[in-house]
Amino acid sequence: MNALIETIEVVVGEAEGGTDDTRVLKLARPDGEPLPAYRPGAHVDVYLPNGLVRQYSLCGPNAQAPDYRIAVKRASESRGGSEWLCGQAGNGTPLRIGMPRHAFSVNEAARHHILVAGGIGVTPILSMAYALQASGESYQFEYFVRSDADTVFRDEIMASPLAGQTRIHPALAPQAVRERIAELLAAAKAQSHLYVCGPEALMQTTAELARGVLGDANVHMEAFAPSALPATGERGFAVMLDTSGKTVEVPPGKSVLACLREAGHEIESSCEVGVCGTCMMRVIKGEPDHRDSYLTDDERVAGAHFIPCVSRSKSPVLVLACEP
Ligand code: FES
């Protein structure tokens, strides 16, 4: 386990709200102590026994609750992450998770919130809806699904106070989805912020339409896939490990991770596309050129961490460490 990453031991429990291909799980500390509170929209990294790391949004109705809830959709081409959680994790199975991460949050200055979810993308959006409902803020929740039977948390939502602000849209064709989003935006109140999570096509369509009406800063997206293919860079630079003092050249077209490994350094990795954080290193000196989808905006500004599987350097030399 990467020493820079703080993890928590939890056990798995069954929860309600799933569908044929989506399992809802409760995660709790084995000793019953409360897990850290989180902000709606947060996610955790789940470290699976097969070495994979997967990101799941915390979708419980109360971000202060002592345990967490996640929903896992069985991916049609699972590489072992969703497959294991849907098929093999049983009641009481131990797991390690990371601390809640906040890359997707409601904007506290917004006067109105437009929540748009597609399929399993409902998970971060649902926790936002519960929080907005509880605080009495103005919001609307649009939930696009393949069919009624595929609607995760359908009964719960419709039996809750969210029902009054929620519209579930089963089986809409892409053009109809586009028209519905355009309709929402045409009626958007001043200082509205829009949040979207779901399939790539829905996110792109929604973001493109919303940016034109609300402006870039008022549109927020959650994606657990790399935003683009990992950039291998057009310029070379050097990396120095503070432990060995040795310098490793990183040419264009090759990742820092690959170069460090070739030079004999052992660095853990999992996704190798900048999503999971497993390979994270500490920055001692130099200016990173962040290309990952893992670090939050605040972490990028702080400049203390670096994701070597995809990120580059703006300075000619970057000095890194593996240990805290
Ligand atoms: S291995 Fe996943 S972010 Fe680098």
From TrEMBL:
<protein>
    <submittedName>
        <fullName>Phthalate dioxygenase reductase</fullName>
        <ecNumber>1.-.-.-</ecNumber>
    </submittedName>
</protein>
<keyword id="KW-0223">Dioxygenase</keyword>
<keyword id="KW-0288">FMN</keyword>
<dbReference type="InterPro" id="IPR006058">
    <property type="entry name" value="2Fe2S_fd_BS"/>
</dbReference>
<dbReference type="Pfam" id="PF00111">
    <property type="entry name" value="Fer2"/>
</dbReference>
<dbReference type="InterPro" id="IPR001041">
    <property type="entry name" value="2Fe-2S_ferredoxin-type"/>
</dbReference>
<dbReference type="GO" id="GO:0046872">
    <property type="term" value="F:metal ion binding"/>
</dbReference>
<keyword id="KW-0479">Metal-binding</keyword>
<dbReference type="InterPro" id="IPR050415">
    <property type="entry name" value="MRET"/>
</dbReference>
<keyword id="KW-0001">2Fe-2S</keyword>
<dbReference type="InterPro" id="IPR017927">
    <property type="entry name" value="FAD-bd_FR_type"/>
</dbReference>
<dbReference type="GO" id="GO:0051537">
    <property type="term" value="F:2 iron, 2 sulfur cluster binding"/>
</dbReference>
<keyword id="KW-0285">Flavoprotein</keyword>
<keyword id="KW-0411">Iron-sulfur</keyword>
<dbReference type="GO" id="GO:0051213">
    <property type="term" value="F:dioxygenase activity"/>
</dbReference>
<feature type="domain" description="FAD-binding FR-type">
    <location>
        <begin position="1"/>
        <end position="107"/>
    </location>
</feature>
<dbReference type="Pfam" id="PF22290">
    <property type="entry name" value="DmmA-like_N"/>
</dbReference>
<dbReference type="InterPro" id="IPR036010">
    <property type="entry name" value="2Fe-2S_ferredoxin-like_sf"/>
</dbReference>
<keyword id="KW-0560">Oxidoreductase</keyword>
<dbReference type="InterPro" id="IPR012675">
    <property type="entry name" value="Beta-grasp_dom_sf"/>
</dbReference>
<feature type="domain" description="2Fe-2S ferredoxin-type">
    <location>
        <begin position="237"/>
        <end position="324"/>
    </location>
</feature>
<dbReference type="InterPro" id="IPR039261">
    <property type="entry name" value="FNR_nucleotide-bd"/>
</dbReference>
<keyword id="KW-0408">Iron</keyword>
<dbReference type="InterPro" id="IPR054582">
    <property type="entry name" value="DmmA-like_N"/>
</dbReference>
<dbReference type="InterPro" id="IPR017938">
    <property type="entry name" value="Riboflavin_synthase-like_b-brl"/>
</dbReference>
